[in-house]
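Deliverable D5.2: sample structural annotation.
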Amino acid sequence: MQQVAEILKRVRRLQIVANRTVDDLFAGQYKSVFRGRGMEFDEVREYQPGDDVRTIDWNVTARAGTPFVKRFCEERELTVLFLVDVSASGAFGSGRRSKLDVAVEVAALLMYSALKNNDKVGLLTFCDEVLGYFPPRKGKSNVLHLIRELVAVEPIPRTTNLAVALEFISRVQKRRAVTFLISDFLAPSPRRALAVAGRRHDLVAVAVSDPREQEMPDVGFVSLVDAETGRIVELDTRHRRVRELFRSKAAQRSRQISEELRKAGVDELSLRTDEDYPTVLRRFFRMRERRFR
């Protein structure tokens, strides 16, 4: 278990980095790429020539004796949910950061973006079952609490079940929400759960990977252990054919994930542990901004 002082130190560092990054990179972008849940009532006013007759408020019209119409504005307040895979495969990282480190840092950055927009923020952690659920709430203290929960997470040596998290959120979150599903997506893709959640919410799949999962260098004879199942695979990386097959299988898996997400209507944000993730996030924001325009 991590010491409390270490957890608080990392939370403080994440808070500083996230605040600075939100101010420097994402000023205004967050609002433009994540739309409100719809339209909310603003006011009633007297009917004017050219107004849509379908907006007439018949109750007010009957009381006033002259026609009045309802006016609506875009509902800007969002509910933002983070579904974070904390299974043991996330502990892998061939460089300075593990996949789970990147997941936590990206979640913290997006949480602070939501905080700046006065949105509600919630968190769900899962592996083969839901481990923790923190309903969406507003405020800085809530965001700090959620980040502390993520920083304190110990990777769980069990398999990942993406459907469990998606089905849980579909049950408990009835109103539309911006939902970030953060995982390495090494588990089977739950087509139906993705499609249902994608229709109900603005679902973004954040796929975190490590370069050593995509390409194996020539390092001789190695034993690879699946952190979730304990299964051991032995490879002789001296052979070019072995390395090519490893790279081909990894690329095929990535393509399959992207295709499943595309069919479900889910946006994919791919991150690697060796990348500058704020830059990748900014590109993703711009892509969504262009599409909405």
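Annotation notes: The chain is about 45% helix and 25% strand. The first helix runs from residue 4 to 25.
The annotation will be released with the project's public dataset once the embargo ends.
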